[in-house]
UniProtKB/TrEMBL annotation:
Its main location: cytoplasm. The keyword Magnesium does not apply. It catalyses: 3-deoxy-alpha-D-manno-oct-2-ulosonate + CTP = CMP-3-deoxy-beta-D-manno-octulosonate + diphosphate. This is 3-deoxy-manno-octulosonate cytidylyltransferase. HAMAP family: KdsB. It comes from Gillisia hiemivivida. Its EC number is 2.7.7.38. The lineage of its organism: Bacteria, Pseudomonadati, Bacteroidota, Flavobacteriia, Flavobacteriales. The gene is kdsB. Coiled coil: none annotated.
Length: 250
C-alpha cells in the first residue's frame, strides 16, 4: 500500500448471508463474480489498506473469499450490527484505523476513501474518533425516504445528529439549506470501535435504528466528509440489476 504516515490501516467488510430484504444477496452473481467478491477486490485494488478482510458468520461467504485467495474471519458470536462484528475481529489486532466497507456496495470510490483517511492523518491530537461520508440530496422523494439516513453537522463538519426523518425540518423553505444523505462507510480509531463494542445501546439508537447514533450519545466526535459519489447499495433484486448495468458500462 501507499505511505500512510505510520498509521496502520485495515479494511473490514462485515458480511451476513441472511439479509432481511434480499437474503443471499452477497452471493448473487455480478457479471461473473459474486457481489461480496467484487466488493472485496474493489477494496483491495484501492491500495489504501495494509490488509483487507471479510468478516462473516456464514460458511458460504467465508469459503467464497478464502477459495479465491482472499482473507476472511469467521465471527464466533452473534452480532446485531456490523460495528460489533468488526470489533470482535479486530480486538487483538495491532491496528490504528479500521475502515468499515459495506459488503453490498461493490462500487467503491477510491477518492472518497482517501479523504476519510486524510482526516486522521491531519489529526495528530486524536480529537476525531470516526470519519464518515455524506452526499447532497436534491430530490424531495429522496429526502423524505426513511431508508435514506440524513445527517446534520456543525460548521466544522462534525456530526450533530443522524435521522431517517428529513433533517432539518423545512419549516422555512427559502433558507437554502442543503440536505445530506449519510453514506455508511466509516473509518474508526480502534479505541472508538472497541468503546462502541462495550457500551450498551441507548434510546435514540434503538428508536432510529442507526448504529452511529451510539457514538454521538456517548460523546464521540464524527467528522463528516462530503462526496458526490453515490455508489449503489444492493438491497433489492432491482438494485442488483442496476449494478449489473453499471458494471457493463465500466
Amino acid at each position: 500500500m501507499e505511505n500512510n504516515n505510520s498509521l496502520r490501516i485495515i479494511a473490514m467488510i462485515p458480511a451476513r448471508f441472511e439479509a432481511s430484504r434480499f437474503p443471499g444477496k452477497l452471493m448473487e452473481d455480478l457479471n461473473g463474480k459474486t457481489v461480496i467478491r467484487r466488493t472485496y477486490e474493489a477494496a483491495l485494488n484501492t491500495n489504501l489498506f495494509d490488509e483487507v478482510y471479510v468478516v462473516t458468520d456464514s460458511d458460504i461467504i467465508h469459503n467464497e473469499i478464502v477459495s479465491n485467495h482472499g482473507k476472511s474471519i469467521k465471527s464466533t458470536k452473534e452480532h446485531e450490527c456490523g460495528s460489533d462484528r468488526i470489533a470482535e475481529a479486530v480486538m487483538n489486532m495491532d491496528v490504528d484505523i479500521v475502515v468499515n466497507v459495506q459488503g453490498d456496495e461493490p462500487l467503491i470510490d477510491e477518492e472518497s476513501l482517501r479523504k476519510l483517511l486524510e482526516v486522521f492523518r491531519n489529526d495528530p491530537e486524536k480529537t476525531i474518533d470516526l470519519a464518515s461520508l455524506k452526499t447532497p440530496m436534491m430530490d424531495s422523494d429522496e429526502i423524505s425516504n426513511p431508508n435514506n439516513v440524513k445527517v446534520i453537522t456543525n460548521k466544522d463538519n462534525l456530526a450533530l445528529y443522524f435521522s431517517r426523518f428529513p433533517l432539518p425540518y423545512p419549516r422555512e423553505t427559502t433558507s437554502g439549506v442543503t440536505y445530506f444523505k449519510h453514506i455508511g462507510i466509516y473509518a474508526f480509531r480502534k479505541e472508538a470501535l472497541m468503546d462502541f463494542y462495550s457500551l450498551p445501546m441507548l434510546e435514540l439508537e434503538a428508536t432510529e435504528k442507526i448504529e452511529c447514533i451510539r457514538y454521538l450519545e456517548y460523546g464521540k466526535s464524527i467528522k463528516m466528509v462530503e462526496t458526490n459519489f453515490k455508489g449503489i447499495g444492493i438491497d433489492t433484486p432491482e438494485d442488483l440489476e442496476k449494478a449489473r448495468k453499471l458494471f457493463d458500462t465500466n
